[in-house]
């Protein structure tokens, strides 16, 4: 065993000149627990002070102002101690970070985080378990397994289910579609009775997802060697939900064209609209055509613990499900999982290495999570959800999600009653896509620009952050409500600002006066 310097030992002259800089003093071990404790407390203290004081979700700084400040840091000249580095960090990061905990952060699918999960994050990175093998994680493996079983239970899967934590919905979707692809290739070979090469099968494979589905589906198709053209965009109805008649027609068309649908992806909570595809109808069609059903519940998974659980009915008929705990379970990034109804499907990601998880182990069966994952070294993200459930329980998380769903409905009522705005759909979850739309004859393109201008000004002038998207070729603004602390008055204030900025833009751009309301 190597010698570990104890704090009581005299420092060498070189160390005395710059005590904190001794590289070995920076290793977390038996001898350094006090400096670990104080450095972490210092870091946590900075964040706590910042969060207490922060008055805006975003400072509004421009990339051109911030980039040179970060470029000016000399990475070849270390500061020697954590206090100095944290002082610097206040300037280059904390001052201008985007604060999701702030009630006027209304933009993307980023949630404020719950304290037990943040404690979990601190614990898991310090212990630094790697969840690929039992011999790198110990109990972490079983904590993760319990949480997968718990999630499977919430979905309504039976004891054959399994799954794995991943880095995010993108990876969860990729792994689900990889398993679906390999299952389809296997079936095509069996049915043809010929030893077909992959190159002969892949061009025939298709993935069906609604036109409102997430772009990670197309990315997965590309990564899986199918090409993004392999994704068939199934038409949505006016509520931005997959139209089952259109899905039926596409499945029949694939069949008559000799194409092989490897999966239908139903989205339970689209990123823009929070709309939930009709899961029972999709499940019926998948059953009828013998196609793998994947449910992308990256956003909608919060319904698993909500009073609105019924919105996910038929999710238990899926072959695979993506859940993003870092979206609607108030967990810090990253925390996601992919689940399968039949654990046998995970064999498609099982590969062996003699040094890690030998195929023919001489020992009794060893629980190695790497057998179920497309990652190797892997974070113990499950610990955050574990501590969250142990502190506040599933119902506590559900209550928070229910609150933002209710708030979104209230905002929808306010928007539909407000003649300054049009809103696209009534939310099932917690997003609203809307735009300032004056009735004074401004062209649609001018209104596009006015909305985008209002969004920019909102961030730079008022420190509130909203998102933007495009619907039927026109620019819209988007609220994603995930913070129960966001009040109606926060939202109404932001709407007034948007209207004010957009009116100002139109008045400057066109010389027209805004309509008198
Ligand atoms: C966010 C999202 C994803 C991607 O998840 P990441 O965690 O960002 O990788 C996939 N699908 C849907 C519907 C999403 O909203």
Automatic annotation (TrEMBL):
Gene3D superfamilies (alphabetical): Aspartate Aminotransferase, domain 1 (3.90.1150.10), PLP-dependent transferases (1.20.1650.10), Type I PLP-dependent aspartate aminotransferase-like (Major domain) (3.40.640.10)
Cofactor dependence: pyridoxal 5'-phosphate
UniProt cross-references to Pfam families, sorted A to Z: Pyridoxal_deC
Key words, A-Z: Aminotransferase, Decarboxylase, Lyase, Pyridoxal phosphate, Transferase
UniProt-annotated stretches for the region Disordered: 1-23
InterPro entries according to UniProt: Aromatic_deC, PyrdxlP-dep_de-COase, PyrdxlP-dep_Trfase, PyrdxlP-dep_Trfase_major, PyrdxlP-dep_Trfase_small
The keyword Lyase is annotated on this UniProt entry: yes
GO molecular function: transaminase activity
Signal peptide: none
PANTHER family xrefs: CYSTEINE SULFINIC ACID DECARBOXYLASE, GLUTAMATE DECARBOXYLASE-RELATED
Family the entry assigns: Belongs to the group II decarboxylase family.
Protein name: Aspartate aminotransferase family protein
Species: Streptomyces filamentosus
